[in-house]
Amino acid sequence: MNLFDLLSKQITQSDLLNYYNATVVYKSLPFLVDGFVTNYKDINVIVINNELSTYMKKKTILHELSHIELCHLGQQDKELLQFKVKKYEDEADKYIKFLLEQIQEQKKR
Ligand SMILES: [Zn+2]
Q: What is the Å distance from ligand 1's center to 13 Cα?
């Protein structure tokens, strides 16, 4: 089970959240912060800015899930992810783009 399955609608978001032992919480965050992911007592907590539109909330959840899937959480001081490490940010966004392209390709076949 992974993001590919979610993006190609074979599973639901809550399936994937369960699989990654992850939960989503909505909070008031500084204006420029869409969200972040952190690990608390072995639970991946995805924190989303509650001011975002529904579309941006969904998009940000996918982005944070890709950090989990790409194992960005263990590779650095966890605090750092909150401050958007550019290398990981690019990688997370590219990963979603790549998966969506794969799905588009599959549809063509
Ligand atoms: Zn990020």
A: 18
Separation of 84 CA from ligand 1 center, angstroms? 6
The rounded Å distance from CA 36 to ligand 1 centre is: 6
Write the DSSP assignment of 62-82 as a string of letters: HHHHHHHHTTTTTTS-HHHHT
Q: How many domains would you assign to the chain?
A: 1
What is the residue range of 94's domain?
A: 3-108
For residues 92 and 67, the answer to whether their CB atoms sit within 8 Å is yes
DSSP assignment letter at 48? E
From first to last of the 109 residues of the chain, give the pLDDT tens digit.
999 999 999 999 999 999 999 999 999 998 888 999 988 888 999 999 999 999 999 999 999 999 999 888 765 555 555 555 677 788 889 999 999 999 999 888 7
Strand partners, 35: 48
